[in-house]
Each structure stands twice: as structure tokens, then as C-alpha cells.
Amino acid sequence: MKIIYMDWQCYAGEDMVAALGRLKDGDGNPAKVVRYPFQNTEKRTDAAFEEQFGEVLKKERPDFVLSFNYYPLISLVCNRQEVPYIAYVYDSPHISLYSYTVIQPCNHIYVFDSAVAQSFQRQGIRTVHYLPLAANAERLSAGKPDEAARKRFSADVAFVGGMYSEGHNFYERMEPGLDDYTRGYLEAVIASQLAVDGVNFVEQCLREDIVQRMLKAYPMEPNSDGAEASAWIYANYMLDRRITQLERAKLLTMIGEQCGLNGRTVALYTRDPGFRKPGIENRGRIDYYDEMPAAFRCAKINLNITLRSITSGIPLRVFDILGAGGFLLTNYQPDLADCFESGRDFVYYESDADLIDKIEYYLSHEDERQEIAANGLERVRTMHSWDARLQAIVGDVFSDNE
Predict the structure, then answer these.
(1) Model pTM?
(2) What percent of the chain has pLDDT over 70?
């Protein structure tokens, strides 16, 4: 079995390559993995790439091509050469999914959000499937953090993630161009969505007149080869990020005030150095491979506050926390029930007050906290590895091609 892996700098890329190398064909022979350097791009056509990659496919004659996230460019070439293209999507939103190329028969696209998969399937599109993400628990939980790591990463509560106040904050760019009515309407939508977990209704609230006013204030046009609507773009790339920004800032500020100022250590690992709140230690950005596992393991409680454009799915952060053996306290996401058992493998909070109550409870009940963390690690190790996901994908692809 020969596989071309489209190699770009992405989370879990090295874990995927390792898992690909452990794949075996029906005769027990190990897979040969060809790592093909690829530039993460939003281009829909590129004559030079299409010609070059087409020659690579002719020369290598792979059984399939695989990439993290979906790229119309890759699909165009694979479709011409009749080579199966597997795209495992872990970004949300991922606008390339709305390219017309998504229906090409070479495609086998796996998305981690069941609501997204169902939306495609309701439209009769059979190339998009639901598959949760995974983690390399063997790497994440290997060894014990040394004294230097414990000193650097120890915390009662920790959050690793973006604050969405960085340079791609489209809402703040648009806001000065809005009229008072539209600004007030959007603020009401944002406030309403902030109060609800598990259901995202932002796009449904964007009437055509509101969208037209947003387009005037800050144009964000659909791609020429895409089926995405303007309302979808504004909901997912602008308002959901704004909601996430407000939610994460609110929750971390609350935790800092009620826990960090009362003797608890609350650590934030983020690329935004400007987020400073009482009781919060902003420790800056950490490396995904070299530092993040130790941060998860050295924190007593690891938070997940899901990006709001992820409607139902389980973010990669959740699998990485559990795969490192960390204790997870998260907001509610419907797809969690597909993979884990609440109260046994992880814990979710139902409100701001419940979040604080559960932080205090699990900091005070160490044995229970450690047992839940151990259960979560074992669940990831035995059921949610990249190896298991690849076996499922390859089974699907080759059964479809028989």
C-alpha cells in the first residue's frame, strides 16, 4: 500500500504520519508513506501545482492521497487521475468544504462535527462523512514531566487556546461601518447565542437586510466556485469568533476573580500577550508537540471552551487533553456522547456558576479527579487513536471502490 501524505505544518501531522506508517495491507505488508510538501492555501486553481502534482501521481501511483483539511486543488488533480483523495477536516469553519469540487467522486471527506456532516447529507452529498478526531495517547502521556516542566506548567486551572482578540478579528473591523440598528441587532444575536450551548442559531438570525448592511460595512464575498452563502460566512467567520472572544474573556475573567485571587493558580497559554486580567497568569504561547502535553499533565483542571462555529463536534483540544492524561472540564458539545461518558471520562459545566462550583469541587476531590483523568486517558488510548481512525477510513474507502 502506497500513500501520499500532503505535508503542511498542522496540528497532529506527525501523529498522522506515524499512524500511516503503521498501516498494513491485506497481506500484512506495511504501508509506504510519501510525504509531499504542500503549502496550506485557499487557492481553488493553480496550473503549476496541478501539472506538477499530476506528474507525481503518475509516477508514484498511490493507493490514495491524504491531507488534514480539504483542498479543492488536490481534489482536482486526484479526480483527473482517478486516485482516491481522503481529507480529514479538523478546522471549523472550513470554507473549502463549500467548493463545488466537494462532490467529485474521488473524494472521501471526513468532518469531526456531526451537524456539518448531516447538513451535507441532507443535500444528497455522499462524499462527506462524520468522524470524530483522535489523539496519540502514547506520545502525549509518555514519561513524567521533570522538575523544570512541573515548575513551569503547574496550575490549578489551565486553558490553552486563542482569545480571538488577535489580528483576524473581523467583527471589530466591521463594527465602525455599521448603522446603529444593525449594530444593536447583531449585539442582541451575540448576547442570545452566548446564553445557549449545544445549538448554534446565529446564521438563521441573519436576515437578508442585515447581511446587506454587513456587506456594505465590511465586504466578505463568497468564492466564485463555492456554494457558501454570505450569511454563512458572516456567521462563522465573524460573529461566532466574536462570541467566542467574549465568552472566553468572560469565563477566564470570572475564574481569575473567583479562583485566581483566592489562592488558586490560573494559567492561560495563548498567542495574545495583551490579555491581562486579575488572577490570570498569561504564560504566552506553547509548542504543540514539545510543551503542550506537559502543560495538560501538570494542570489539575484543563478547560475546553469550544469555538462557537463548532456546532456539535469535539475539538482536537479535548482529545489532546484526555490523551495526555489530563482532567477535562468542558462546555457541553452533543458529539461528546458519541465518544465519552460524562462524569466518568470527563466533566462538563452547564452554566457560569456551575463552572466555578465544579472547579472548586474537583480541586477539593483529588482522588475523584485523578480517576476521571485516568479513565479518559484509557478511553482515548483504546478507542480514539489515529490508528483506529485510519483503519475505519481505509475500510470505508476501499469498500466503496470495490
Answers:
(1) 0.95
(2) 99
